[in-house]
Amino acid sequence: PLLFRPRADAAQWLWALRFAFECLPGRFERNRRQLASLAAYSRECLIALRAEAGIQYHQLSKGILRFCTERADFEALAAQGEALSAAQCLAIEPALRDSTLPVLGGAYVPGDESGDAHEFTRQLAQRAEARGVRFLRQSSVEGLEIAGGRVAAAQVSGQRLEADAFVVSLGSYSPLLLAPLGISIPVYPLKGYSITIPLSPRAAAGAPTVSLTDESHKHVMSIFGESLRCAGTAELTGYDTSVNEVRCAAILKRVEALFPALAGAREVQPWAGLRPATPNNVPVIGRTRFANLYLNTGHGTLGWTLAAGSGRALADLLSGRRPEVDFRFR
Known about the structure:
330 residues, nine-stranded mixed sheet, 15 strands
């Protein structure tokens, strides 16, 4: 699931060393609690926002099933006291009964949801524009102008834009914009892959109906309307965004082994993108040493999970309020 491609890049090696340090049991547990708190808060914010704005994004509220096909993964879940038997997993997701790989057990969180993040973002942008928000599309942020301990303006595609406050939320590219200001954040790109499989009526009958996490290969699968999206793997390979067909083919092969009815699907859409990851997986949210410059980045593989709560907390910080969630903000 994790592929390290060594490069002559000091930032990559420093990130990797920090990542190894954050794998120590004590630090892992502390970081996990931070993420769990923000994730739970974010889910509440998302549900409230969805109800208020009327956004529909192929949301699936049937919970998420984590299933294991390897003994070591099942034993790890069992050690946490949350393991379900194979029969219980198959009852939750009957499509796994046809799997050519044995399902040994898993864990189920009935309150979890999934959805199409792109569709959600598109509809949210439409509603924001209706309220007067102006988006500068096809534009490049070239730099920030500092004066008197504050950001005076942003240079965007040759324009000088002034504002009361600025938020850097550029994903994997955030550290590149901040470096000239003397601000260092531990964010480095992890390239992830996904495939989207169109579902014919025949294939849909054998496709999963519950969102799934494949513990052995660290893949996640969800139904989006008439398609199945499967995402996973991570490459530490700098800012390369090219699609590795071998990696995508491996994801497809795993899906076909788990759900034979999907074998031979046509027009499978591969994709690759950069996830802005921190060594401990905890995002960087809050203030900087410049009075009106804020950060909201480094969400890694959990950008969709943590988005609504991160945005709400940042709005509170910008407005001088204390965020409602227990989280280590900057």
